[in-house]
TrEMBL record:
GO terms for molecular function: cholesterol binding. It comes from Cettia cetti. InterPro entries: OSBP_sf (IPR037239), Oxysterol-bd (IPR000648). GO terms for cellular component: cytosol; perinuclear endoplasmic reticulum; plasma membrane. This is OSBP1 protein. The gene is Osbp_0. The lineage of its organism: Eukaryota, Metazoa, Chordata, Craniata, Vertebrata.
Length: 120
């Protein structure tokens, strides 16, 4: 119903990005540029998207500099370590996959998101 006004997305597709309470502050549904876009505030959304992208670039540059510094000092550099997943090699395919390592649901139950980085 009313699909012509909803870009012909299915009801499921339209609800996938609906905000949900009590989720991690890193949940992509909380992206401020996305929220602005979905409320039709395109110009503000574009400015916010640029800000977020520059913030991501700055983090990447910092990590790259830390890796170079560690290399120069002969130290190991782990880089980014995901909070809720770990990289493993699939025993069947040999491909690198991400496997849930726990912690998200416990943090959600406690509403303790102190381990989450400030990504927005």
């Amino acid at each position: 119903e009313n699909a012509e006004n909803m870009y012909f997305f299915s009801e499921l597709a339209l609800t996938l990005n609906e905000p949900e309470e009590r989720v991690a502050p890193t949940d992509s549904r909380l992206r401020p540029d996305q929220r602005l876009m979905e409320s039709g505030r395109w110009d503000e959304a574009n400015v916010e998207k640029q800000r977020l992208e520059e913030k991501q670039r700055a983090v990447r540059r910092r990590r790259e500099a830390e890796a170079v510094e560690a290399l120069e000092e002969g130290k190991d550099y782990e880089g980014y370590i995901p909070l809720w997943f770990e990289r493993k090699v699939d025993a069947v395919t040999g491909e690198l996959i991400c496997v849930y390592k726990g912690g998200y649901w416990e943090s959600k139950d406690k509403q303790d998101w102190s381990v989450c980085p400030d990504i927005f």
